[in-house]
Amino acid sequence: MKKLFLFLLSVLAVGWVQAQDVQDRRPSAEEQALKQTEMIVRELRIDDSVQYHQLFDMHLRYARQYEDGCTRAQWLDKMESMNKDLQTILTPEQYEAFMNKQVQEGPHGPRPQVGRFGYRPEGAARPVSVPQREQEQP
């Protein structure tokens, strides 16, 4: 009985420690802002340091607001105001290219190819279409 109790206690302790690790791995506002800024800079091929810093400051401001917590309606309002900020930072051509890419791929990038039986990794063989058998005529 004592061994069973110690075993269960050790299992609970391991689970508690792992749960703490998951909370610690959440990226900070600065890391999120840097990742989002780098994504836009890469997609739009921005090489202007002023635009880069403006984008980073904007993303940092919104990431910190998001960390404070918000409802879905507040989050949608923040996304609308972030799009307005993007319009002021980016040139009209850059903004149009960014919005076109968002419409085509979505806000989180392109969706993975999904095959008949689930996810198909990139570079994997594509299914081959099998020709239909011709029906024999009597």
End-to-end gap? 78 Å
Which shape, going by the Cα principal axes?
extended
Strand line-up of the largest beta sheet: 1-2
Helix vs. strand class: mainly alpha
Radius of gyration: 25 Å
Mean pLDDT: 76
Detail the poorly predicted runs.
none
Largest sheet: 2 strands, antiparallel
Topology:
Blueprint: H1 2-24, H2 29-44, H3 49-67, H4 72-89, H5 92-105, E1 114-115, E2 118-119
Antiparallel strand pairs: 1-2
Helix pairs in contact: 2-3, 3-4
What does this structure look like?
This protein is mainly α and 138 residues long. It has a domain at 27-102. Helices cover 65% and strands 3% of the residues. It has helices spanning 2-24, 29-44, 49-67, 72-89, 92-105; strands at 114-115, 118-119. A two-stranded antiparallel sheet has the order 1-2. Strand 1 and strand 2 (118-119) form a beta hairpin. The longest helix has 23 residues, at 2-24. The protein starts with a helix and ends in a 19-residue tail after the last strand. The model has no long low-confidence stretch (mean pLDDT 76).
In short:
The chain is built from five helices and two strands.
Name its key features.
138 residues, mainly alpha, two-stranded antiparallel ribbon, 65% helix
